[in-house]
Structure formats: C-alpha cells, structure tokens
Amino acid sequence: MQRTHEPDVPSIANRSFVRPTRPTRSELAELLFAKNVRPDATPPVPSVGELTAGLTSLARGLRRKVLIPLADEPLEYALVRRDGRVLVSIYETASAPEVHQLDHPVDLATLLEACARCALEQAQLAADPIARQIGVRTAERARRTTLSPDPAASAQSERHSYGEDEDTDEPLSFAFEARIHPERGLSSASSSRATTSADIHALLFEGILTARVRGRRLVLSRGPIVLAAQRMVVAVRALVDAWESGRPLNVKLRTGAFGIGVRLDRQERAELLLQAQGETLRAAELHPEDIALPVLRLASELLRALVRTDRTQARNLRVTALRDELRALRKAVRGRRRPGFTNADPERLALSLASEEHRTSPGCAVLDDPRSGIRYEERWRIDLGGLDAGATYFCGDRLVLATPDHTLAVERSTGDVIWAREGSGSLLMAGRTLVRTSAEGDIELCDVADGEPYALARVVPRVGGRELALAVGGGDVPPMAVIAEGTSQLVALDVRTGEPRWRFAAAGTRFETTRLGRLLLVATEGTIHALDVATGEELWRHVARTRFAWAPIVQGDTVVAVGAGRHGKLIGIALGTGETRYERNLDGAVRAAPIAAGGVAVIASGRELEGREPRTGERLWRRSDPGIGDGAATLDVDGLLIANAPGGRACAIEAETGETRWMRPLGDPLADEVPRRLEPVLRGAALFVPAAGVFLVRPSDGALLGEIDDDLVPDRIRVDERGWVYIAEESGHLAAFGPAPQLRVLKGGKR
To answer: What is the mean pLDDT of residues 51-59?
Structure first.
C-alpha cells in the first residue's frame, strides 16, 4: 500500500514535543494592535490561515482591501494596502458598530513574516499530520510571496465638505469636512459585478462633524463621523414613529464620546440634546421637522460624498440599507408636512352623492319568514388541494375558486367544473370581472363565463402593503377596477379594454378605501383623500396629526375616521368639503376599524366600546367590548350591531343605547377551530353566522333557526338567493348545502 509522504519540517514535524495549553501568537498580536488598545479590550486574532491568505493577495496586488469576519464574535478585521504597508482596522458588525481600532499602519512584509512563523508554530503544536502539512505549506507560501507594486499607489484622498460653518436662521444645522480615499478595485477581476456585500469599513472614513444649535457651535465627532450620523438617524426614526402615533418620547443614544437625546411631548414639542467631549448643546421648543430634516440631509450628504468618491459603494449593503432608511423617513416627514385642502365646489359632489341608491339585503323565498326551524342537507362536495378560501367568489350560477396552480369555476348546483385555467397568481374580483395579477405586474381581465382573458394590462408590481382590487362605475361612471400598484399608487383600469384611465399617487404603502357613489375615500398614513372615481381628481384632502390604520366610515354628511397610537383620536370631517368638524382624544388605543350602525359611530377603544354621535363626536354610551377589538366581524341590521367574536359567541347590541339585545354561544372557545373569516351573512330574515359550524340566527332576538353541523371549518361562507350555503375550508374542501324539503301544516285546510 502506498503511503503519503509527510514533508520534512526541521525541528517541528520530526521530533517529539509537549503540547502547551495555549498556542502563543504574541508577536502577531503586537503587530496587529495599536499601542492605545487596552489589554483587556484586545480582540481575538483571526485564524492564521485566513490572515495569511488575505495578506498574500494584498502583497501580490490582487486586492486592495480584505475583510476578515470572526466566527466567534461579531467583529471584523479590515486590511487595506497602502504602498508597502497595510492599514489594520477592527470594528463590530452590529447595526450600530463600535470601532476598536482604525487604520493602524503595519509593514506588510513584516506582518507576512510573522504570519509564517505563527503558522510554523501552530504546525508544531498540531497532532494531526495533515494539519502539520497545511501549516508548513501556509508558511512556505507566505515566505515565497514578494511585494508587487501597489496598483493604486497614485490614488489620492478626496476632500468633501458640507454645510456652512457659520450662523444660519435654522434652529439646527450641521457641517462636516472629510477625506475619503478611493478603494476601487477591492476584489479580484474574477468577482461578479452582481455580487454585493456589507462593507462597514468603507463608512469609517475620518472627518470633523460640527453642529450649530441656535447659534451655538459644537464639534460632535473627530474621526469616523458616519457613526455619529447613524446614531442620529436612529433617534430620528424613534422621533418620527412617536410623532406619527401621537405618543410622547424620551430616547438617549451614544456612540463613543458622542451622545444624542430627543424628547417629544403630546403637544408635538420636541427637545434636542447633543453631547460631545464633555460639552452639551440643548434646544427646546422645536418642531419634529426641525430635528428630522437636518439630520436626514446630513446623512444623505455623507453617503453622496462616499459614492461620489467610489462608485462601487453604491452596491454596498450597508450604504443601500441606510439610503433606504433615509428615503422612508424623508417620505414620512414630507407626508405629514403635505397641506390639506377643502373642496371648493361642494354642490357638484352633493349631486353625485344624492344619486346613490339605498341597498337592502337580497330576499329569499325560503328565508324571508322563517318561523320554524330550517334543515340543511349536503348537495355536493369537492376536494381541491391548496384551496384559497379567501379567494372564493360567487358569480351568478357559478363559484370561482383559486388554488396555487389553477383558477376554476364550478357549477353551483352540482359542483361540476365548468372551466379551469392553469397559472398561479392573485385572484381578485371587480364586479363581474375576474382580475388575475402576477408578481411581475401582468394583469388579465377575464370573463367569468369561460375564464379566458379578453384584455391584458401591465402595472408596476405591488411592493409592500396588501393587494387591492375595487370595482367602481355604474350610472355615468365607466366600469373600472381600481388596483394598488407599486409602493404607493392606485391605478384605475377600464374593465372593457384594460387601458388605464387615471393614476393617483399618495404617501404610504397601505391603502384603506371606502366607496360612496362617485366618491372614493382613500386613507393612507396620516392623510385621507377624496377622489372622483370617474376622473381620479382629488376633490379634497385632510391631513391629520395621527396615522390612519383603518378605512373611514360615512355617516350622513360626515366622514368618521380614527387615528392609531397609544391614545387614539376620533376625527369628524365634512363629507362635501373635507373641513374638520372635530378632533377628540380617546381614552385608549383604537383596536378595530370604526363601525357605522343605526346612525351611530361605534369605536373599539382599549377594552371598551363607545357609541359616538357622528356629526359632533359626542359620546352617547360606553360599555365593555364583546370582542370587536379582538377581531370580531360585525354587521348592521336595522340598527342592531351584530358581532361574531373569535371565541364562538355572537351578540346583538342596540346602536342607539349600547344595550345588549341578545347573546348566543356558538361553540367552545378552547376546543373549536376559529374560521379565517367571521363575517355573518344576512339573507332574507335569517343571519348565517360562521363559528364551530354555520348557524342560522334570527337577527331580532337571536333565536336559533337552524344549523349546518359538518366537519368543515367555515373559513369562508357564501349564500345565494335560493338559500344555498357554500362552505370553503382552507385545507382544500368546498361543500354546498341546500334547504331540505319540509312539510308544513296549512291552516284552514279541509279534511
């Protein structure tokens, strides 16, 4: 058998030795660490193999910077070639990095020789022959390496400055001077241009950062000034979040000798505290914008200076993350600065709203007067793997369904498949138009008769926020589907042609909509927009000092909206003009969308339910919350607020007084599964309530009229005009139940 020959290693591999308890690398540590690094704060030395490989590539001119992350601690070494020397930096890799050492110069040849000796030392201590061979080869490679000329030795640092270091009219301003050395060509020529990495060291360029607060000047940082700017951006994020939610704030952050403190009270008065080198600058009675905007401008200018010096830093993950954060914060601040306006022609809007027809629940011969119990029997059942119960739509004589692989329609009386189309994507209904959207922004407008597309459109792919498809039109308004696209835009597509009729851009990624005739109310972030659905024209805009997380409701001539935050806010807006009628603070956080019931605005705040007069905001009653704040679905039936709570309990509340008309348990809150959708369905004089099963309840008194007791979880229910009930379960089952034939005794009949 052939043996692998082990190379001769003088005084190392061919003699016996006693292994010490800890290999010493003191010479290597003395070279890597500057004299001012405290012994108790000395970081671990990288593995000799990685360190030697990195230094070798620097010496041969293949790379100008090498990043060596440590495996055991969130630390990273940066080795940068400067002629015959290497600059050694050590820093943390957390979101707020701390620098242990920056650009400590070491002779490259000396450091390579130390690596070679350390590799031989480790080979001597290794018990495994292969490990000894690797150590020897590593040392040999380091000693064979000769220093090639630095390919970028002629590159000079570029000087950048921002801000005038003199008195300004602004309460807060910043200025900096920095020198940034171009580090182009950091990686080998074989590396992919598509590769991106997080290079923290690139952000650690040195400079001088100063601040002026109402005429007083303070040097905030000397050295890696981006670290101080990052701390200020974090403070601004906390400030903007508190400002949007209407809550007070008191935050203090530090990095090295720099510290920042920000306070905000409920009256939106902000206070800033800057500390550096034992000095303090304090400014009170500021607006949040006075702090946020100067900090965001400063951070943007620092990134712009870095990318201008080295274009490759545009792909640096740390740079892109900070730039995205700055854009989001700037957008949030500008959204709150955007002024509102009222409608100058309310008569025009009043005429369009007057044509809105009053809608009532469709009747049903079987359910119009259910004086006795109603029995149901199963008519058909199908099994569809991956059925999306939320995308189950009732369209005339068929049900349109969606699975991850197909869109199909089944006949409502038999369950037979009428048509099926392959393809995945989101399925939405806009009236009787089937809207299929793909992740790439392709849209198909399909006829529910055969599922085939009759029009195609393309929009900007949706990024952030939930999907939206809303059918608008009728009367004098062309039939359209309003769809959310991109990050913060709505587009109205003509469902006859697929062509866009209008687009509307707003601040924020989340849209909450309320339709009333020709008017479309769009709530996003801290603004409510009133749009004409025919043209997309903005009729009025209401900007509030709060964040709208739910769709507003319309009660008479008043729009009622609620703001999010630890203490919610109730806002009344004139429907015709957009003028503010009132703003009232609530006792607790709003936990659900406002509800319109019997001419009363019902608000779930904290653990209580309140009835408010919509035109004035005055409280009419208060009671304990029956579960609306916990996700109960509601329905207004002739002035009764029906609430179906997740715990298997339904109740009816008098909208005028807040009194409980009736309450009925519908399941075991501990043993029964909770349906995905809890919305009760009113058909004729019967209320279909999903819980452990589907229960038929008389709305006026809560009397139980019937029950569909099946093993399916009613994640989504549909009821047609015949009284048939269709139950969809998320696991992939769909079943149809029809009223069973019954015999009734007719009074006055002859024997």
So the answer is: 89
For the domain that residue 505 is a member of, what is the CATH number? 2.40.128.630
The amino acid occupying position 614 is: P
Secondary structure (DSSP) of 149-183: PPTTTT--PEEEEES-SS--SSSEEEEEEEEE---
Alpha carbon of residue 423 to chain centroid: 27
The domain boundary residue, chosen from 286, 302, 337: 337
Cα separations (Å) of 229 from 89, 226, 681? 20, 5, 55
Residues 47 and 102 in one domain: yes
Domain interval for residue 217: 158-183+202-337
Query: Which tens digit of pLDDT belongs to each residue from 64-107?
Result: 889 998 888 888 999 999 888 999 999 988 877 888 899 999 99
Distances (CA, A) of 20 to 13, 46, 116, 121, 231: 16, 20, 19, 11, 45
| 168 and 128 housed in the same domain | no
- Whether 219 maps to a domain, the answer reads yes
CATH of the domain at 262: 2.30.31.10
DSSP state of 148: P
Taking phi over 0 as left and psi of -120 to 50 as alpha, with beta for the rest, 43 belongs to: beta
Cα separation, 527 vs 584, in Å, equals 17
CB atoms < 10 A from the CB of 397, how many?
Answer: 12
How many domains does the structure of the chain reveal? 3
Burial (CB count within 10 angstroms: exposed 0-12, middle 13-18, buried 19+), residue 438 = middle
Regarding whether 67 and 167 lie in a shared domain, the answer is no
In a domain, 613, yes or no: no
3-state secondary structure of 317: helix
Do 537 and 507 fall within a single domain? yes
The Cα–Cα gap between 397 and 380 comes to 15
Angle at which helices 129-144 and 48-59 cross, to 10°: 20
The verdict on residue 674 lying in a domain is no
CB 280 within 8 A of CB 274: yes
Cβ partners under 8 Å of residue 641, min gap 6: 595, 597, 598, 602, 634, 635, 652, 653, 654, 655
Do 353 and 311 fall into the same domain?
A: no
Identity of residue 40: D
Judged by average pLDDT, the poorest of 479-488, 533-542, 615-624, 681-690 is 479-488
Contact partners, residue 136, CB within 8 Å, separation at least 6: 7, 9, 12, 13, 119, 120, 123
Q: CB of 446 within 8 A of CB of 454?
A: yes
Q: Which of 251-260, 476-485, 651-660 has the highest mean pLDDT?
A: 651-660
Q: Are residues 162 and 294 in the same domain?
A: yes
Start-to-end C-alpha separation, the chain: 112
Same domain, residue pair 104 and 220 = no
Domain final residue, candidates 483, 514, 543? 543
* Cα atoms found within 13 Å of the Cα of residue 518, Cβ hemisphere only: 20
Residue 109 within a domain: yes
| Pairing between β-strand 469-474 and β-strand 477-485 as defined by DSSP bridges | antiparallel
Residue 584 pLDDT:
92
Same domain assignment for residues 112 and 243: no
pLDDT per residue as tens digits for the range 660-715: 999 999 887 666 678 888 999 998 889 999 998 999 999 999 999 999 988 888 99
pLDDT tens-place string over residues 222-253? 999 999 999 999 999 999 988 877 788 999 99
CB 739 within 8 A of CB 731: no
407 SS3 class:
strand
Between 4-18, 341-355, 415-429, 595-609, the lowest mean confidence (pLDDT) is in: 4-18
**Using H for helix, E for strand and C for coil, what is the string for 457-468?**
EECCCCCCCCCC
